[in-house]
């Protein structure tokens, strides 16, 4: 059966050349500047060990890249090779993270019990990033998922920098002045964040000084604003998103100290990343979203039933209000060209993102920057203006903000990139986490159509019911979600042949079937939340 599944996958790819599930971030094939030309830029790419080398060797197509990664050719014989369950588990669990949070951190009680996270790449290297940290000079924890496109460099930079911008915006005037005094007099400065680093984490050390310099300019401006208490959480999130995106754009335009930093800055700016960030402080949950990652709350009612509460909306063409917003920002003449084929200017799926200056800068600015001494071929950047590029900017990073007051029935928060949501609905994801949390596999009530079935159909129904009783294979709930997203049969059970076939796909085929998947699940301390309501005489609905 495994061989049959594998051969069917290969047959579909060879004859159809389509993505069966999920969406490509930018476009399905190689982009040609001239549709009448058959010339395609081919480059042999290889994954290098250091972050800097990775920056200089992007592997995925972008609006300005006319090339295709040259990888090994897939054959039917290759796809008949199947990974064993042990090998599958090793791959699925390679990027797991599980962190238990102390209830009391020395200053405040923490409503977060623990969080679990994992990633499964489809691109090579993975274009998704994730972050988690505690704000040390203020209160609260930050969790984020970042989905890169046109390479991973922008997602990497945003995952390193955004939390610092948020934390600084939240800080009081007094704390900001203390940090500035320490910097000015070269004294040890107060730590801003406590990071929870996932496996295989790395940072752009060569750009650390540049990032710190611009962060310092940011907090100096905040000091000048003379805001004694710091910003409110919602304002801080929105301001941090927009300020970081502005800095990314600026760094690509101004002279920098070294060619390494200039090359990195230009690549970050021309790549892109969506972002979904949650800030949890006592019972206050704020979510800032830009793009098509999602934040979904798992809610358990008094009768034990579970439901999903979306805290974000996808910023893509499938969201009517978002589509209307984008079209309203441009002349009536462009109404039919701003979004075509459910993509911005026919190219980009998310309608909000960091970076992507090719959708923000004027044509003249793009040309001026790209011709300013950069080796564009080495950087894999090829100047190509999107069609109907008349009234930029077409893209912004302005986050959509959601505030939610946590209640005792709010048990967990799922943050995930769209690679998960391409495969699972909100309700399916919440059900899977709830089953993992309670150790009970939830039975759906028998539908009216199932109450009178012929004997021939009863076997299928019993298989579906039996699937619900299979215990979880994974201690980490994020792995549990990822496994089910790619390996679940129509009966709701893990189909080993399907899972093995999906996990055994060569690199040049994997992205045709799914996207990178990143999941973080945050568990809340319901007892602590309930005690807070009781102590403050609050009612929860």
UniProtKB/TrEMBL annotation:
Hydrolase recorded as keyword: yes
PPM-type phosphatase domain segment(s): 112-524
Keyword terms, alphabetized: Hydrolase, Metal-binding, Protein phosphatase
Pfam families xrefs: PP2C
Family: Belongs to the PP2C family.
Protein name: PDP2 phosphatase
Organism whose genome encodes this protein: Polyodon spathula
Annotated gene: Pdp2_1
